[in-house]
Amino acid sequence: MPVITELDGMWRISRRLRFEVWPAILLASLALAGCSTPKPAPAPAPPAPYVRIRNTGSNVVQLQIAARKFVPARHSGPAVWLTGVSHIGESNYFAALQTHLDAQRVVLFEGVGEHPAAGSGANADDNAIPAPSQQSSLQSSMAASLGLVFQLDSINYRNPRFHHSDLSIEELRKVFANQHPAEGKAAAGESFEGLLQAMEGDSWLETLVQLGLRFISASPKLRGLSRLALIDAIAQLQGDPAQLRGLPPSFKQLIEGLIQERNQRVMRDLRSELARAGRDSSLSVFYGAGHMPDLERRLRQELDYHRAGELWLTAFSVDLAQAGISTSERDFIHDLIRREFEQLK
């Protein structure tokens, strides 16, 4: 009888995850990864993943994100940190990130949108900060439902060393408008508009996801299971949604376009900052973890930098015992997410 009861419970969890929670988990894992990376050129040493799962004990599962230090390979010069980030996490995670970023001479940060200038400079957006009106409704809701906090609410972007290094929405629209329709790029532009609506809470998809988030926040155990599912989903992606070959072609083109164009802007700004920085200076690129493999390749190939160290920070975790999650339920979630991603791959 207990076996039947447990199997019935797992069946109910499976249905709830698939129909109520899975849409939120998939969309959130894509968003938290910061889009995707294009197919890499052959390289002797491909970048290692910027995300990993750690079990600190039998009951605690952690999602960790890397910050990696790079220095010039053949001469002295400024150090560059590629600081990956999960856009939602525990408050002490963002506190540790803030301490790390405040130690840098310059921080180049992401933020698609029209940002009001917070200071003056050669670039009108040089010291721009994310505007509260543009905070992602979806990611804020996801954070709250999981008992976490949202990046834009937790990082102090008013530090004068923080410099906006991203494209505006209009610049991205021009990118997709200039793509050739025969290659299916027009559909990628339509997907971009749909993504904007979803992330800003102005679509039927956001309504569906919000419904699932209400179920998550109402149950401590379901909240723990959803955290586990999100950790497994991000780990399956390894920070790179381009692995999901089962995605519609227009969406794959969208995320490849987003990563390439935005990373080009970052590299342009980074070159300018390196030219002004002292040899003993330290700079940071503060972007979603999904941008980091491509940025690392560019840093190595274009600027001849090599890795000199790394720092792993725990974005969020799940205490299985505290959440009332059994070993069999943990394994069930892991296998469920793996199967879902195998279908997408």
What do these coordinates show?
This protein is an alpha/beta fold and 345 residues long. The chain has one domain (2-344). It is 51% helix and 17% strand. The protein is built from twelve helices and nine strands. It has helices spanning 2-32, 91-102, 137-145, 151-154, 169-177, 185-199, 204-218, 220-237, 249-276, 292-303, 320-323, 327-344; strands at 51-55, 60-72, 79-85, 88-89, 106-109, 149-150, 162-164, 282-288, 305-319. Strands 1, 2, 3, 5, 7, 8 and 9 form a seven-stranded mixed sheet that branches. A two-stranded antiparallel ribbon has the order 4-6. A hairpin with a 6-residue loop joins β2 and β3 (79-85). α6 (185-199) crosses α9 and α7 (204-218) packs across α8 (220-237). The chain starts with a helix and ends with a helix.
Brief digest:
The chain is of the alpha/beta class and 345 residues long.
Count of structural domains: 1
- Amount of helix: 40-55%
3D shape: globular
Q: In this structure, how is the largest beta sheet organized?
A: 7 strands, mixed
Question: How do the SSEs run, as a string of H and E?
Answer: HEEEEHEHEHEHHHHHEHEHH
Q: Please state roughly what percent of the residues sit in beta strands, choosing from under 5%, 5-15%, 15-25%, 25-35%, 35-45% or over 45%.
A: 15-25%
- Radius of gyration from the alpha-carbon trace, in angstroms: 20 Å
